[in-house]
User: What shape does this take?
Amino acid sequence: MRLVEIRNLAVRLGGHTALRDVSLGIDSGEIITIVGPNGSGKSTLLRAIIGALKPTSGDVIKSDNLRIGYVPQQLHIDPTLPMTVGRFLGLPHRVNAEQIVLALEQAGVPELAARQMSRLSGGQFQRVLLARALMNQPDLLILDEATQGLDQPGSAAFYRQIEDVRLQLGCAVLMVSHDLHVVMSASDRVICLNGHVCCEGEPEHVASAPEYRALFGEGTKGALALYRHHHSHSHDHPHDHNHSHNHDT
Assistant: This one.
C-alpha cells in the first residue's frame, strides 16, 4: 500500500532552492534511507513530508488517516527539571500506563519508565524518543539522524531495534543518517539526495552508482559489502566500525 507519494517537489528556503524536482513513493513496511552530503536537503524533505514545511511547488500526497511517528535529530530538556520517562511520554496529553509500557517495550527499554530523564545516557535518551514516536503506533516512522552523537556500536544497536519495530508494527520507516555503512545495511531502499534524487534503489545498487561514489568516495562500496547482513537477526557477527560523518543543515 502506498503511504506517501511525492511528485515534483520543490522547496525554496530564504531564496535558496533546497529541493528541486523530487519524486518518490513510500510503501507500507519498507525501510528507506536517505543519504546525502551537507546541505543536500535531507531534513528539508522530512519536514515537507511531516507537514512542517510548505512546498514551493509539487505535491506531497498522504494516504487517509496516515499516522506518523517522528524521532528528531535532537531534543533539549532542562537537566534541572525533575521528570521521569513515564511523565515525559505522557506529555502533552495524558495517556494510560499500558501505552507507555508498550512503547518502551517496542523501543527496547522497558525498564526506564521510572528513570529521571536527566539520568539517561545518550543511547537511552534516543530510545525514549523512539518510544515517544511509537506511542500512536505509526504507519510511518520518520527518523532524522536519530543516532547523532552515539558511538558505532550504539548506532548499530539502535538500527537493529528499528528493524525489530518494523517487524512488530509492520510500519514503513524513512530515515536520514550519516552512518552510511550501518544504516544502509538495514535498508530495503536507499535514496541518494543532493538537492534532487541522484540515484535510488537497493543498497548494493546505490553503493555502486557513479553518482553515489562521486559524493561519498570510492572506498564506500567495499565497506558496505562488509556490513550487509540480509536481516538474519542473529546479530552476533563482527560489525564494521568505519563510518562517515555527513551532517545536514
